[in-house]
């Protein structure tokens, strides 16, 4: 049984975490599978949008704690394993944001610890309205320090700190209000709502979306002055494309654009 299932259709790649027995935990094997698909998607021009979902009753319950405990052994060996584990996990999380394609999380059940980090690392997220989100490692004595990085870049710091120190779970409605997810929908409508969002994005000029995603993350840490200078250059480059010329002309002439969708 494949740990990670990929299905492509109409420019949309759906990745499904497929380890329901352990709530799709981010085991060593799952992280390796995710990294392999991220690398493949980065080089696949036919894919315009990526959807990330989970099989079974939960999206993702975070790291595989049984695997982590088994690695303790000698202090030095355990230290090296944990350092490598968190480095590989961070690479996956950053890899999702570095993908040229927008990534949409389709979330149900629970998204806890590194599973919540996974949601926060995606560009957008749609969740079933009965989903719960938490960074609750503190309940077992393990502060969710790496999940904190993505979480604090999605929601206000005081709320994030409360979650991190109390183990409090967010409802889907709270997650939407705070900006962790884009919207919460009835569970029966989750797949359709996510697919609709993916198809909407996939219908745009792919090259423009890709340059826009890259610029979006690059400008975030900049000062406003530096960000305007940087994004101005991005818009100049974008404006000079043949397909952008066609898109603007089509809008002014009130007709559908005839895009080649190359930059």
Give a nutshell description of this structure.
By secondary structure, this protein is of the alpha/beta class. 50% of the residues lie in helices and 15% in strands. The protein has 11 helices and 9 strands.
Mean pLDDT, nearest integer? 96
Oligomer: single chain
**CATH class type of the largest domain:** Alpha Beta
CATH superfamily of the largest domain: 2-enoyl-CoA Hydratase, Chain A, domain 1
Sketch the major β-sheet: 6 strands, mixed
Helix content: 40-55%
Strand content: 5-15%
Q: What's the CATH topology name of the largest domain?
A: 2-enoyl-CoA Hydratase, Chain A, domain 1
The CATH architecture category of the largest domain equals Alpha-Beta Complex
Sheet with most strands: strand arrangement: 1-2-3-4-6-9
Task: State the main characteristics.
single chain, 263 residues, 2-enoyl-CoA Hydratase, Chain A, domain 1, Lyase 2-enoyl-coa Hydratase, Chain  A, domain 2, six-stranded mixed sheet, 9 strands, 50% helix, globular
